[in-house]
Specification:
It is globular and about 75 Å long. Helix 1 runs parallel beside helix 5. The longest helix has 16 residues. The chain has about 350 residues and is of the alpha+beta class. A hairpin with a 3-residue loop joins strand 7 and strand 8. The strands form 5 sheets. A 6-stranded mixed β-sheet has the order 14-16-17-12-11-15, with no helix packed on it. A 5-stranded antiparallel β-sheet has the order 2-1-9-8-7, sandwiched between helices.
Amino acid sequence: AILVEAQSGDILYEKDAHKKWYPASMTKIMTMILALEAVRDGKANLEDMVISSEYACGYGGTQVWLEPGEEFTLKEMLIAIAVGSANDCSVAVAEHLAGTDKAFADMMTKKAKELGAKNTNFTNSHGLHDDDHYTTAYDLSLMARYALTLPHMTDFTTIKEYTFREEPKLLVLHNTNKLLWWFEGTKGLKTGTTSAAKRNLTAVAEKDGLDLISVVMGVDERNGHFTQSMNLLRHGFAKYEFKMFFEKDQEVAQIEVGKGIQEHVHVVPLDPVGIAVPKGDEEAHEVRLDLPKMVEAPIEKGMEVGRAVVLKGKKEMSSVPLVASQDVGRCTLFQQLKKVLNAVFVIN
């Protein structure tokens, strides 16, 4: 098990967090990561049609009973994965994005390594048991932290009920993560259960600005993965609070713009700038703004121009991108000349 603060990755509790274990359907966190990365990067679209192959339709376990040749949008498939833990949809999405489930699994393992998940190996996109398919609680916390940065991840994993198919027979999916009903502030992510892996859950919850990620693996008792997760999250929220320095989109600085229509661009954090601290902790923290003196136009709104770094003494505790809050176009040659002449006139 492990409990971490989502923004900084600070470990608040751990027990055998680096022990290799079977993730079961928590595998689908990485399946969704790769799919939503592709959407973010323009390599796929949520409205793309995904065609079900005979191979994808042949999987057991949790499924939506796809038929060979049946089509759904990528969005519909991803929601079925997030809500209903559909194995057949996982394979269909994997084939859509990589050609085969095996090729996609190799991409999953590679991405895990890039995130620092060194004790992880994926052999499939769905999580049905394979002795060579494993991860750790710590590695899953890394994947979950990254997953939270992707558009649509929490939108999909917090859906409680979803009508996947109306004809020829109604199929309504109910989210397998009971914390959405049982624990206030839950924002996803994914359950996983097989006879070998037992009961597992990666969960995310927020309270008073503090986002926590809990991972529990290998739980024996029925609903134990939910109760153990709630115990971890309650412990975290009881012991820690989020010390806020700057809110998301709060202006923190202005930077001079070279060759721009405007002289300066306003800079804001992409996410809240803060850190989890023990309640009552009076230890000093400060924020360092790593920004250039000037940026060249053109500048697009949301373009990263620096970082806000939270420091405890000299140690860097967390870092948040700082972005431009507006577009700044580039001056034409005539506009640049006019600015120079105006500056000369002012000096004279």
